Amino acid sequence: MEVRFSDHPKRTTTEIIEQFCRLTSNEVRRRGVELRGAEFERFVAEIRRVSLGDDTARECLLASLPAMLQRMMHCDHVTYFKVGGKTPEGLAILRPWQSTSPKLTYNSDEHFYRACPDDGPTGLAATMTDVLLLRNMNRAELQGLNPHLPDPNRSEKIAEEEAAKLRSLFALPVFKGETLVGLFRGHRTVRRINVSFTEADRDRLRLVQFLLRGVLSNGNGRVVDRSMRSDASLSANC
Known about the structure:
This protein is an alpha+beta fold. Helices cover about 45% and strands about 20% of the residues.
């Protein structure tokens, strides 16, 4: 194959290059959707397997989920915060338990979050039953959730990356019955992915939350397989 370089390529040449770039970009996006769908299918398979196991199997599932969610949601990093104790005021305390980040950065003497809006989006999400999704991380979006919610780019107590500007963030509370047992937090940075999470991403996270609640809440460890199949089919195209 002969390769030539020119400072002034012909119009037909540039058109061919543009078409090739578009085809390549479309293929990358298509492949990304396929990989995320395949990762969700692996998650559903894990849920089925763990539903037949004991509490140790469920703990192992939660420990493996940050890496799985990182691939499923196309994130830079995901951290699982586990509820461990309460403050004197009765607020749940969430401590980092498992993360895709090789080293967490602590920007406060408190190496944990309280389940309250004063502790930023992570603390706010711990007071919610639904998934928290911050798509653009701008001030208007933060104030729409809570007028006093601090910007996580400026005040995050525990960060997966030092001095990394966040593009988009999600926080997924995990429940056993009606009791909060933990929270998954994931993000995309401006420097790397720089793409917002979408409403389809929110729907997929809600489905993950639903399946986790089922497998953690059932005393005999069984989850209704029919519900898993129907909801998984809805999410497969997200």
